[in-house]
Amino acid sequence: MSDDAALEAFRLADSFLPVGTYTVSYGLEQFVADDRVTDADELEALLETYLRRQVGPAELVALRAAHAAARTGELDAICDADRRLAAVTLAAEFRESATQSGKRLLSLQSDLRDDDLLARYAERVDEGATPGNYAVVLGVTAALAGVEERRACLLCCHGFATGLLGAAQRLLSLGHTDAQRILDGLGPVMSEAADDSADRSIDEMTPFAPLVDVLAADHERAQRRLFAS
Predict the structure, then answer these.
(1) What's the pLDDT score for residue 219?
(2) List of residues 6+ apart from 97 with CB closer than 8 A
(3) CA distance 172 to 103
(4) What is the pLDDT confidence band of residue 68, given thresholds at 50, 70 and 90?
(5) In this predicted model, what pLDDT tens digit does every residue of 12-21 receive, in sequence order?
(6) What is the pLDDT of residues 2-58, one digit of tens each?
(7) Contacts for 75 with CB less than 8 Å, ≥ 6 apart
(8) Domains of the chain
(9) d(Cα 95, Cα 74) in Å, to the nearest integer?
(10) What Å distances lie between residue 50 and 12, 21, 83, 99, CA to CA?
């Protein structure tokens, strides 16, 4: 990648990016509330499940499709991937969180970058013609910035993992060293998730983590919640 593309990738992976991901735990809050995750080892196992069973076979497939479509200017293909990802995401909270953060990223990039494809995609999202999922917006953004497809997948995995680790530090007695140890241990899992998504079409998005979906539904009805999901 060029220096500009590398710097853009660093910016997109930074927790400083104002897209609201600090407000979501993607079900982790309910796992902690139910005492299903009580320590660093259990947390790492859960994050591995997320990466292998949800992020890899769903978000990364959509990201790759959006990235490829953005490189060739195919707006309809971007929207197809966007709608398909929404369709296979069962938990209502997850869909809402993904579209909220996606719209924030899209708005931010539209303010920073003058690009016709980005503007037309933003118009479709504003019209409600396509949801604007975060993974899809990230794929488009990465492609337009010259960030290579696989690196964009790893960026997505890294951002997801660091976001949940940040949530875990507010929910558990998890120190910074343990958080970094978990993140380091998940490196091979992120690579495998990226590999698994490489040859899938959008019709082959197959997220499967039933307990995550069940606890996400429980979280929607929880009386006390620190996180939006």
Answers:
(1) 76
(2) 23, 24, 26, 228, 229
(3) 30
(4) very high
(5) 988 778 887 7
(6) 889 999 888 898 877 888 777 777 888 888 888 999 999 999 999 999 999 999 999
(7) 69, 117, 120, 121, 124
(8) 3-14+37-212 (1.10.4190.10)
(9) 24
(10) 21, 16, 21, 18
